Amino acid sequence: MTRCPAGQAEVEMAELYVKPGNKERGWNDPPQFSYGLQTQAGGTRRTLLTKRVAAPQDGSPRVPASETSPGPPPMGPPPPSSKAPRSPPVGSDPASGVEPSFPVESEALMEDVLRPLEQALEDCRGHTKKQVCDDISRRLALLQEQWAGGKLSIPVKKRMTLLVQELSNHQWDAADDIHRSLMVDHVTEVSQWMVGVKRLIAEKRSLFSEEAANEEKSAATPEKNQTIPGFHQAP
Amino acid sequence: MATYLEFIQQNEERDGVRFSWNVWPSSRLEATRMVVPLACLLTPLKERPDLPPVQYEPVLCSRPTCKAVLNPLCQVDYRAKLWACNFCFQRNQFPPAYGGISEVNQPAELMPQFSTIEYMIQRGAQSPLIFLYVVDTCLEEDDLQALKESLQMSLSLLPPDALVGLITFGRMVQVHELSCEGISKSYVFRGTKDLTAKQIQDMLGLTKPATPMQQARPAQPQEHPSVSSRFLQPVHKIDMNLTDLLGELQRDPWPVTQGKRPLRSTGVALSIAVGLLEGTFPNTGARIMLFTGGPPTQGPGMVVGDELKIPIRSWHDIEKDNARFMKKATKHYEMLANRTAANGHCIDIYACALDQTGLLEMKCCANLTGGYMVMGDSFNTSLFKQTFQRIFTKDFNGDFRMAFGATLDVKTSRELKIAGAIGPCVSLNVKGPCVSENELGVGGTSQWKICGLDPTSTLGIYFEVVNQHNAPIPQGGRGAIQFVTRYQHSSTQRRIRVTTIARNWADAQTQLRHIEAAFDQEAAAVLMARLGVFRAESEEGPDVLRWLDRQLIRLCQKFGQYNKEDPASFRLSDSFSLYPQFMFHLRRSPFLQVFNNSPDESSYYRHHFARQDLTQSLIMIQPILYSYSFHGPPEPVLLDSSSILADRILLMDTFFQIVIYLGETIAQWRKAGYQDMPEYENFKHLLQAPLDDAQEILQARFPMPRYINTEHGGSQARFLLSKVNPSQTHNNHYAWGQC
To answer: Considering only alpha carbons, which residue of chain B is nearest residue A20?
Structure first.
């Protein structure tokens, strides 16, 4: 099961949201779960609602005890909470949930995101075809334009900051997962340029493993007994 | 008996099999008197996180007409290194690699706990998965935009080396050539004329024979350079260009005048998709994914004309033989479906529109190939978007749950024969000693092909006991069945899953109690229901209901205890106690009652019913109803109007809908706002509890259900009221002692 391994606490929380469905276009449209919640699903289920009750064999109608005489039952208040409450609810109403608000740190900076991405692109120039690099570059420019133009929402900016951090730390899978979560949750905002970021992650990853393989080869040839301390083969 | 329930559950968890009878009547005559046939529900790829596949190939019986797989039921001579096939009794030599086996050093496939085992096939080139998108452009602007975004998103969910292709259609059909450079090209076909596979391949320039993928060659770890075509390219190469191409897709340019439907050439589009894959990648895992926003109105496979004043056929029209295009259209899609299944590919249909889209005629495309059918109101809904995302869910190993190109081979011990299978499969027409002449479902074969499947895909397999009455089976004898499923895993590697089971025979004359106690009423209900739905496709509705009722009566006559002329004395043992309820709800269900559903809706419901596992199928037959109150923890309650109470909240799961219903008093309390007062916090928790449970179901189920939150007196309460048994009506509400 893929989990989003990245994330500071607030961003993780922000990734586990439920939005109502599209009531105008679909009747009884179910709520929309964020990527984070969807990838979580399938873990241990709290309850398994699959039991049934057999009908009474003697054929009498099951008239429940609380129905007594005809006429409207008196409506008093519900029983007050005297005992300890039951297990607290996990989330809010699936249909009316709203993104939970979290303390906003300093606004994610565009430069903090774009500079590392552009640097990564530069690193790849020798290794990747020119056309691909140009295409990625074009999309990064689009990202910059949209960010500067205020067209990107805060969650997108926050997650992009995280993505870039993971990329800088060579955590390719984590970066990839964040890109996926952005595509799933915010496709309208990101679709035009995100595929460029996706490709950049892939190119960086293959460049890195190529470099690591070359280093290992050159380290192995001179003296077989000497291992370079602290060097680990990239998987 | 509690022990049989455990036995049944353990077997299901381990083998993915549920039998209607777990102790088998030993003669044909007695078996027919049991009313419910001896049959099982098999989930061939049931998720087994505790069962890692073994890295070698299975050992087969050497008899050419048998070829059963070595299993725990075989007798083994460890000294002579021989094993006896339990199906044909042939003595076989173990292969040299098994030279070191002994009683204390058994290979896994001989151990009883490995009655289900999975093998990985190492040899052979591994071909990538293929996804061919066939996209209707006769959509409204925001619908098309939402669909485009979902497709762009899917490129991030596909594996990087999967091949992807795009065909768009409206009045014309466009096959897009995917290239990384320069101008994008496409081949345009008229939507009115059907073409043969060869014509399509010629016109697309695919006449050179494709490299066959299934031959056993020396393993080629690198991607074969010709494994792709101009129309199907790897995601990692083409994703940027395809994202742009999708982003630039426009609505079909042909103007639609007032009172007309857009001209939609779905039949030709699908035909070209099938022909394209047939010519380039036969016999390898591929999905043709058809996205459509309305009915086919042009060319072969058209379901309705372009005049809006002539509505698309209803059940009434079909009954009166007034559905002009139905037969011809169904034939067209059946031909395509059979070709696709023969090629080992599957077809998904994603139909989002407010009116019907022709699912009735096109259903064979999904049903015969194992493809998915998703029905929604618009592509711009959460129902479509999330259902579509869930196709790409990964399992505990990070692989896609979808699997391809499966063949299921069933072998039985000689007292049994195979009558047929019901599920998302086609027959491979393999005759043999195990095949019965009496067909139930898709019969006349012991092998079926399931081109698209996942860990919940379930087939109903029906058997016939052929042992004669005067040839009794020795006491303690067991019958055996082996299910061998060969398939392509989503990691593109080929695997074989083998399940071998055995059950005891019993003489029905003297041991009826044992047979009775081992009856699995849940499996029996689903297996009978599948038979009923299968019949309903070709017989009249009332006839099917009469058949179902007759079977129920015969079953009650055989197994009920009663005194003649005294209805109140009728009793069924515990193992049958739920069965009559299941039958009651089944006959009212949308699977057998077409009233209140369009032909497309009925086809949609039946499609999902014929492939789900037992638990989900039962939910469809008899929805689950749970009651939440202050009186205790949530409890299951009878699906009956007597369960609707003022001080309860009900959660109903019909599989296709999740309904939360607030009783009258609860609704009034909520309106008064008690949940916001701190001293009534327990009321807040009470309101929340069913929402949390509903969320768990909504998060996991495929396809995503609709979500209805309603209360006493609300118009949406009709979803609950129409499902419950109306034991209390205005006639008998205040009277006692009446049923």
So the answer is: B382
B288/B267 Cα distance (integer angstroms)? 13
> Are residues A28 and B699, on separate chains, in Cβ contact within 8 Å?
no
C-alpha span between B383 and B426 (Å, rounded): 30
What's the confidence (pLDDT) of residue B708? 96
Quick one: closest CA in A to B522, which residue? A52
Residues 72-111 (A) with a CB less than 8 A from some CB of B: 73, 75, 77-81, 83, 85-86, 88-95
Residue A216 above 90 pLDDT? no
Min CA distance, B712 vs chain A (Å)? 14
Tokens found for residue B430: 């393999």
Share of chain B above pLDDT 70, in %: 95
The 10s digit of each residue's pLDDT in B314-340 is 999 999 999 999 999 999 999 999 999
Parallel/antiparallel/unpaired status of strands B346-352 and B373-376? parallel
Q: Which residue has the tokens 């990985």?
A: B120
Which helix (H) or strand (E) element contains residue B317? helix B315-319
Edge to edge, what strands does the sheet with B39-42 contain?
B17-19, B39-42, B459-465, B416-422
Could you give the percent of chain A with pLDDT greater than 70? Answer: 65
The shortest CB-CB distance from B571 to any of A46, A57, A192 is to: A57
Tokens representing B276?
């394209």
Query: Given A49, A187, A196, which is nearest B240 (Cβ)?
Result: A196
Highest-scoring range by mean pLDDT, B121-130, B177-186, B449-458: B449-458
**What is the nearest CA distance from B448 to chain A, expressed in angstroms?**
30
Question: Which of A4, A29, A186 is the mutation pick for testing B, counting most B CBs within 10 A?
Answer: A29
* Half-sphere exposure (Cβ direction) of A158: Cα atoms closer than 13 Å: 19
Q: What distances in angstroms separate CA B617 from CA B250, B519, B701, B707, one per listed residue? A: 41, 18, 13, 19
What's this model's pTM, rounded to 2 decimal places?
A: 0.91
* Cα B270 to the center of its chain, rounded Å: 22
Q: How many CB atoms are closer than 10 A to CB B215?
A: 8
B67-118 confidence digits (pLDDT tens): 999 999 999 999 999 999 999 999 999 999 999 999 999 999 999 999 999 9
Residue B734 tokens read as 């205040």
Sign of CA dihedral B319, B320, B326, B330: positive
Closest approach of chain A CAs to the CA of B569, in angstroms?
8
Instruction: Look at B378 and A41 and tell me if their CB atoms are within 8 Å.
Output: no
Chain B positions touching A135 (Cβ under 8 A) are 240
Residue showing tokens 């309101």: B687
- Contact residues, chain B, for A36 at CB < 8 Å: none
Say whether pLDDT at A85 is over 90: no
Q: Tell me how close the Cα of B112 comes to any Cα of chain A, in angstroms.
A: 28
Contact B382, A26 (CB under 8 A): yes
pLDDT digits (tens, 9 = 90+) for B685-701: 999 999 999 999 999 89
Q: Using alpha carbons, select from B624, B622, B629, B697 the residue that is nearest to residue B663.
A: B629
Distances (CA, A) of B443 to B27, B288, B418: 21, 27, 8
A60–chain B Cβ distance below 8 A for any pair: yes
What is the tens place of the pLDDT at every residue in A126-157? 888 999 999 999 999 999 999 999 999 999 99
CB contact A69 to B (< 8 Å): no
For an interface test with A, the pick among B695, B698, B738 (most A C-beta atoms closer than 10 Å) comes out as B695
Distance CA B649, CA B629 (A): 7
Interacting residues of B17 by C-beta distance below 8 A, sequence separation 6+: B11, B40, B41, B42, B43, B483, B499, B501
Q: How far apart are CA B465 and CA B417, in angstroms?
A: 6
CB B309 within 8 A of CB B333: no
CATH T-level fold of A110-216: RNA Binding Protein, Prp18; Chain A (1.20.940)
